[in-house]
Amino acid sequence: MPPHGLPVQNALYTGSVIRRIEALFSQSADPPLMERAGLAVAELARELAGTGEILVVAGPGNNGGDALVAARHLKNGWFPVTMVMIGDPHRLSTDASAALAAWRAQGGVLETAIPSGRHWSLVLDGLLGMGLARPVTGRMEEWIGAINRTQAPVLALDVPSGLSADTGQVLGCAVRAHHTVTFIAHKPGLFTLDGPDHCGTVHLRDLGLTPVQLPPPSGWLLGTSLLAEAFPARRQNSHKGLFGSVGIVGGAPGMVGAAFLAGRAALRLGAGRVHVGLLAPALWDPVQPELMVRSAADTLALDQLTALVLGPGLGHSPEALTILQAGIARPVPLLLDADALNLLASHPQLQQPLPRRQAPLLLTPHPAEAARLLNSSTADVQADRIAAALTLASRYRAQVVLKGVGSICATPEGRWYLNPTGNPGMASAGTGDVLSGMAGALLAQGLDAETALLAAIYLHGLAADRLAAQGIGPVGLAASELCDAARSLVNQSFR
What we know:
By secondary structure, the chain is an alpha/beta fold. The chain has two domains: 3-220, 3-Layer(aba) Sandwich (Rossmann fold); 225-493, 3-Layer(aba) Sandwich (UDP-N-acetylmuramoyl-L-alanine:D-glutamate ligase). It is 38% helix and 14% strand. The chain is built from 17 helices and 17 strands. It has helices at 15-25, 33-49, 62-76, 94-105, 138-148, 195-199, 225-230, 256-268, 296-300, 318-329, 339-346, 367-373, 378-383, 385-396, 431-444, 449-469, 479-493, and strands at residues 11-12, 54-58, 81-85, 122-126, 154-157, 179-183, 201-205, 219-221, 245-250, 273-278, 292-295, 307-310, 334-336, 361-363, 399-402, 408-410, 416-418. The strands form two sheets. Strands 1-8-17-16-15-14-13-12-9-10-11 form an eleven-stranded mixed sheet, sandwiched between helices. Strands 3-2-4-5-6-7 form a six-stranded parallel sheet, with helices on one face.
């Protein structure tokens, strides 16, 4: 059964698992999977192309075979089709050879170069599939460049050519598609790192394979069911003591705003009490007087805390280090972010007690922070974001989110999830502090650590998407605006 009520369509499969599925059904599927895929492409292409001429670009693998089948169906539907293929037609797989023979039997012509100076209503990218494992070079690189220069809408088959289906990394160069039709199940690379910039709108076609015929998913796309799980309707007979007491600790001189942003987010997400502990002298938050402000040390000493967030604006001072050591020792659910993560990376002795903590631990690094914790580089982390998140989760026995486009959430047990919400407006100061406060509020209210983190991540991005749809972003979206948008979504749509 899918976790957290997620729909089966949200399952994610890596390329190696998809290839096993294809091999399993290669002999028994009737019609063959390639025929099903090509027909699915043709049906979508008809909707996208209008009445103009379609350029179909095929590679030497099964992705090219899918393109040949699609071209045949489009030609039979009276669309003018120009079919271009790279590679040796005599070295195709059995299925792709059959697709080429069927194309020629319908009177189809095979070109060997992309015509220049032509106008296309749609371009089908069938050059490279999900098996790509090294950077694109040579003639294939030239053809990808030619597709990107056509100025026509592009429909990619399964995955845009040049994009890793597993990691979302561009391998040398990649097609920039307006639409991607992916087969059997979603692949993680379509939704993380460079994937969203190259895939456009993603369309899933399961090719008639039902979930019961497939192996267990590799991971899951997050969805709205998480919010129903995280925010059940509240009883009329309620009081603030039922909704937890969260401590937000950070706010060194010059960075008090980070702690206040996290505190305001925690209030908007329903925490009963929010205590903000600062390293800088401050009496209160003039915007949010409901926040109970005191020193960092005094906040850590509070007995009633049901969750603790350490890191927003914490700094790197000796006092910050002492505060972090004390926070790790508190037997309450703990979220570490920002400077708390940087202190962990630079003081390995602080890392030792983390896997032995009895209370839940959440880590929310961005790629550079993750690289420091892994003693690696940001480039290495981004090259395989799923692996990096899983390594952190295992090493620290923590719930982890690796932030960025398509944030990756990983659990100590090896589960992982990918978040599809969010937009470039979130690339501004303070959005991470807001996320910490949101997750801290859910922890304080008694949610298990996995659900708290997943719901906070999904809602955080969804709030940004709601604001962008209203014209408040992506340019100029401020972190503080996410707090009210998230509260509105919870109360209007998910009660």
